[in-house]
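User: You have something folded?
Assistant:
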Amino acid sequence: MDNTIADTAAPLVELIRSELGIELTEEEVVENRIEVKLPPEKLRKLLELMWADPSKIPLSDPDIPKVLAALSSKYEIHILTSTFADEATAKKWLADHNVPYDKYVHVTLPEQKWGYNADVFIDDSYEVVAGLSANGKRALLIKRPWNTIEAKLHVPKNVTVIDSWDGAEKLLMNLLRH
C-alpha cells in the first residue's frame, strides 16, 4: 500500500522536516537510508504519526481507483501490505479514495509477501519484486525514483517494469486476451 497505492513518501519527508528539522529526499526515505539518521524506533513513531492523519496522504497515482475498478471485473484484488497504518485506518483510507478491493491482508514484514498466493503482484519495491521472482511469482514493478537504478541494471525473471497504474491495467487486461 505505502508508495504503491498511497503516496506516503512525500508526507513522511514533510513530517521529518517539521518534527525533526532533518532534510531528506523521498528517495532517501523509501530506500531506508533514513535509518542512518534515525533510530528504527523513532522512524516507527513517525510513520505511525503520519498515518494518524491520513487526510494528508494522497494516492500515488490518480488513476488507481479507475484501474482497480476495471481490473476487478476480471481479477480478484487483494491489498497485501506491510503499512504502518492500522487495519481500520488503512481500510478507511482506501474507502475514502475509492480504491476497490476484495481482500485486505496485512503482513508485518515486506518479505512475507513472497509466500502469498496470487497470480500477479504490483509493488514499488525492487527488493519485494526480486523476492517474488525468486519464489517463482510474477510481479509488476511500478517505476519510482527509488527503484530506477536497480531496474535498469537487472529486471528479475517474471518481473515487468511499468511506468504507471494505467500500464498495469493495459498489461493485465492484455494477458487475459492471450
About this structure: Residues 9-56 form one domain. The longest helix spans residues 40-52. The beta strands are 78-81, 103-106, 120-123, 138-142, 159-162. The CA atoms of residues 72 and 101 lie 7 Å apart.
